[in-house]
Here is the input.
Amino acid sequence: MTPANLSAAKAALSHLETDENPVSVRAKSRDFFWYSPVLKARLDHLTADFVVAPKTEAEVIEVLRVAYAHDVPVTTRGAGTGNYGQAMPLAGGIVLHMKNMAAVVAVHPGRVIVQPGCLLKDVDAATRSRSGQELRMFSSTWATATIGGFVAGGSGGVGSCTWGALRDLGNIIRLRVVTMEAEPRVLEFTGEELHRVSHAYGTNGIITEIEMPLAPAYDWVEVFVATHSFPDATAFAADLGREDGLLKKLISVYEAPITQTYFQRVAPHVSPGQALIGLMIAPHAMDAFLTFTARRPGARVIWRSDRPDWDREPGPVFEYGWNHTTLRALKVDRVITYLRVRYAGHDFIDKVETIRAAFPGEVMQHLEEMQENGPVVFAGLSLVRFITEARL
Amino acid sequence: MTPANLSAAKAALSHLETDENPVSVRAKSRDFFWYSPVLKARLDHLTADFVVAPKTEAEVIEVLRVAYAHDVPVTTRGAGTGNYGQAMPLAGGIVLHMKNMAAVVAVHPGRVIVQPGCLLKDVDAATRSRSGQELRMFSSTWATATIGGFVAGGSGGVGSCTWGALRDLGNIIRLRVVTMEAEPRVLEFTGEELHRVSHAYGTNGIITEIEMPLAPAYDWVEVFVATHSFPDATAFAADLGREDGLLKKLISVYEAPITQTYFQRVAPHVSPGQALIGLMIAPHAMDAFLTFTARRPGARVIWRSDRPDWDREPGPVFEYGWNHTTLRALKVDRVITYLRVRYAGHDFIDKVETIRAAFPGEVMQHLEEMQENGPVVFAGLSLVRFITEARL
Here is the structure.
């Protein structure tokens, strides 16, 4: 890529919505890579040369054709809420910003057709109001992230305790993709072919339309449960995950002192050493849920959103879970980062305890329950006190 | 119970809807007990003295008060589609027929409130038309059985491959019950208390109102898959049951020669020795389902209800499953009965093979997949060639 290439590409795309202001171009070249001290050191300087925000698939094709012709790299970006630098231009060039392609195209029983730049919360708002449905799963950045970014960069999230991961059969129905080549092609992927582009960060095609399955939208009751011990919490979460008739959307587990140190509005309601479980339960499953909880002397409901009784309400319980846990910890303590772990197999709870025992004080267990083709597993998003890169 | 008691009870209830015609009283005293050659020999002679069909809960209370006062037994009955004589009067007296209490009282997001005499198909019709919802599960006698009979006598059915058994937490929300004592009480049961009356055949209280969870109603695609071998079929069923993102309502497995001998409209489409799988798949999961199937060289879709291509359509696929399998076999071969088996544990497929090997020609495997608090299991409703009671 030479300055001449860049100038030619810019000129060829000048009739589209572009941005060359260095400050805003730099802002649009960054995501939440700073979750990682390793990536922070390596990616902080990156910036694109300019930003293009296409309004139609035809404009996407035009951008890709021009960029290919002039050998200019293209980095696709939704809202930039990923944690791994997936939306950052490693070699400058164009950031392809999808904010202008945000229409909810159609809502049908069990599915929605939507453009990639639509925010997750706007997908849900549209499917709720038009049909009483909502997305099966979303990232904890629901309020700010896009559906395109979720499909291209995410793996699962709130809802995965019932529906499994995004990659599992049935959790994405169809992706429409534009290729980057001399003459870009428009391809429709379903079934086995979906894996070519989902979770590929736009590196092998730009998603221009997404068809996702929907589930019924309920007024989920958000719940916090405190348990005497961490093993009480993991057993609670594992067993609850196995209750197929008890409809839920979130089961997050937090070892002490995560709640006590990082969840300011929850901290006054737990004792030192207590673990916390964050939950979303269907309203018509609350009787079943309270029955389940009453069987466990070590567990106590401390918050339910349908009967608020705290002076300061905690806000959405899902905004304590998944990657928001690390975000909350980072706000309090800049040395925190996290590591993704998968605890599976019949002894998955024992594996968690082995890791707990190995890194006392350095690693704090944060677990998210997922269905994994039958058995429940924990996705670990362990909070880690960063010491050195080698140690990490 | 003396004739004097009976006469007094009859007189006291004569203002209600009663039936004393011996022919119709006998008909209303029978269920599908004749599935079992053992029960057929033992229960065939049973009949009540008269039938009362209350129209309101107040009338139920009146019947129970009068029956208690005169020491007359009461046997509650929905549509009489049970297979175990649960609705048959072992000692005469009154059959309490619930057909007049069949109102769908209210439909809310995720739940329905209904009277016990409502047919399962009428519950679904009402919840579909009012709200786009349907029952999570139903017996294969959906078209003729009542919701009260299902809750009081059933254990699960079509839908259990996703939602588990009726007894599992969350699959019944609330039961309203009238007790039989000098002054009958009206009790509301939820949570742990539900087990006092669900699956108790009305023996310790008469259900007068039922609150059940609902799921979204889809235009389920009904599918038959033929497999080369029976192990191909069990592996297919087990793995499909574990696909949490692939929404389904039925997974039935039939060993050869069940299809070849008893399923007349399906038989022309399978080869000798092939096993059959009956399925209900959500329309928006069909891409995922066909992807799943394409991974298995031993499996082939031979029927899908959304693309009918047989000269004679097979009718609802669920009417081949659960207790309808035995019914179809009985129509062809009067020596058939069935045994309920549960195949669970990590080696549940091996257990099926052990039983297969032990009773060649005598026992034919019919399996229904269920979720069982996490793992999938098979409910076996094995077809058995009845030889003697001792052998059975």
